[in-house]
Amino acid sequence: MCLVLIGLGVLLLIPGAHGIRTLGKVTLNPQSSITIPCIYDEVYRDHRKYLCQGFEWLLCNTVAYTGDTKEDVEVTDFPLQNMFTVTMRNMPTGGAHYWCAVEIGGAIAPDDKAHFKLSVTEDPDLSVDESVISGEVGGNVRVQCRYSRQYQKKKKHWCRFRDALCVSVGGSDPQVMENGAGTLSVVMTGLNEADTGWYWCEVGDLQTPVYLNITSKLTKEPLTTTNSISTFRATTPRTATSSDRGEGGWTGYLTKEASVVIAVAFGLLFILAVVSAIAWRESYKTRGSGIGSVQQGQQVEDHRVSAAGSSDVEYNSVVFKRRSSESCLHQPPCGPVEDSEVIYSSVVTS
Fold first, then answer.
1. Is 345 exposed, middle or buried (0-12, 13-18, 19+ CB in 10 A)?
2. C-alpha–C-alpha distance, residues 296 and 201, integer Å
3. Confidence category of residue 273, pLDDT binned at 50, 70, 90
C-alpha cells in the first residue's frame, strides 16, 4: 500500500515523459512585442496548449489557451511543426515568470510544461533589430542582435531552435561576428527552403528569438514545408549545453523549484510509509494476543498418557461451559452447576 502511495505521488509531480522546451530568459521593451516559440513532442499534436503565469508551477494562473482572443497575449499552435508560439504585447515594466504548457487531460498525469522568464525594461540588455526577417532562395540575410555593455564579455551564439544547434562567434557558415561595440552580426548565405524557421541570438544567459521567412524567387510567397528547419551549414556545429549557455538556455526539464517540491513530497511519503508500517505492526500484535487468550479459555488440547505396563489410558477433550459473570451481576447468587451444564466423555481402558 505504501509503495502504491509513493508511486502515485511521483506521477503527480513529474511532468509527462515526452517533453516540451522553450527559451530560458528573454528581454523586451514595453512598447514592443515578442513571439516566443515552444517546441513539443509529436504525441502532443492534438493536445490543448496554453500559457501560464507564476514562479511556481503548482500556483501559476492560466493566461490564455490556443484560440483565445485577447488583446495582449495570443497562443497559436502549428501542429505540422510540433510547435506553438506565444505572442505578448504591451507588457508592463518588470519581470515575470511564465510556462509554455500542454494539457494532458489525465486524472493522474500532470500537464507538461517548460519555464521561461520575461524581463520588460526601457533599455533591454539584449534585443534584435528585426524579429522577422525575409529572404529569397539562393540569397543572403543579415541579423543584427544588440547587447548591453555588461554582456560584452559573455559568450555569444547563434542557434537554430528545432534542434538547439548553435554556432559560436567566428563560425564561417553562417558567419557569426561581433564588432566590439555591442552588436552581434549573423550572415547566412546561399539560403534554401529548409532555412525557414525559428532561431535565436544568445548572449550570456539571455536569448532573443528571430524568425527567418524564406520565399521563392518565382512566387514570392512564404515556403511551407513539413521540414521547415533542417540542418544548416556550419563548419563546427554543436548542440548548445547549459555550461556555456548559462542558466537561461532553452528549457525542457525540471526546474529548481520543481525539484524542491518533489524532494519535499518524497519526504512526506516516506514519513507516511513509516507511520503506516508501525501502525500495522501494533495492530498485528494486538490481534495475535487476543486470539491466544480465546483459545486458552475455551479449549484444552488432547493429551495421551501411557501408563506403566501394558495398560494405556486415553483422555479425550473435556469442554466446560462457564456461566458468564454478567449474567449473575444483578441476580441472586448463582446456584450450583446443573448436570446438564457439564459434558462427560467416556474413558477407554485397554
1. exposed
2. 84
3. confident
Handedness of CA 126, 128, 132, 138 (dihedral sign): negative
DSSP 8-state class, residue 195: G
- Asked if 68 contacts 95 with a C-beta cutoff of 8 angstroms, the reply is no
pLDDT > 90 fraction of the chain, expressed in percent and rounded: 43
Express each pLDDT in 141-198 by its tens digit.
Answer: 999 999 999 998 899 999 998 888 898 887 776 788 987 789 999 999 999 989 999 9
Q: Of 128 and 240, which is predicted with more confidence?
A: 128
Report the candidate in 188, 79, 347 with the shortest Cα–Cα distance to residue 199: 188
Confidence tier at 59 by pLDDT (50, 70, 90):
very high
Summary count for the chain: helices (H), strands (E): 3, 22
Is residue 202 within 8 A of residue 166, CB to CB? The reply is yes
Asked if 50 and 65 touch (Cβ cutoff 8 Å), the reply is yes
Amino acid code (one letter) for 95: G
Judge residue 23's burial from the number of C-beta atoms within 10 Å of its C-beta, 0-12 exposed, 13-18 middle, 19 or more buried: buried
Using an 8 Å Cβ cutoff, are 104 and 13 in contact?
no
Note whether 78 and 86 are within 8 A (CB): no
Do strands 141-147 and 238-239 pair parallel, antiparallel, or not at all (unpaired)? unpaired
Q: Using DSSP, state whether 22 is helix, strand or coil.
A: strand
100 vs 114: CA distance, rounded Å: 5
Please spell the DSSP secondary structure of 38-67, one letter per residue. EEE-GGGTTS-EEEEE-SSGGG-EEEEETT
Residue 167 half-sphere exposure toward CB, CA atoms < 13 A: 23
Query: Which residue matches cell numbers 500484535?
Result: 285
* Side-chain half-sphere CA neighbours of 264 within 13 A: 7
Among the listed residues 74, 68, 79, 83, the one whose alpha carbon sits nearest the alpha carbon of residue 38: 83
Query: Which residue type is seen at 210?
Result: V
Q: Is 279 exposed, middle or buried (0-12, 13-18, 19+ CB in 10 A)?
A: exposed
C-alpha dihedral sign at 235, 237, 243, 248: positive
Please name the amino acid found at residue 126. Answer: L
- Cα–Cα nearest to 72, from 57, 56, 92: 92
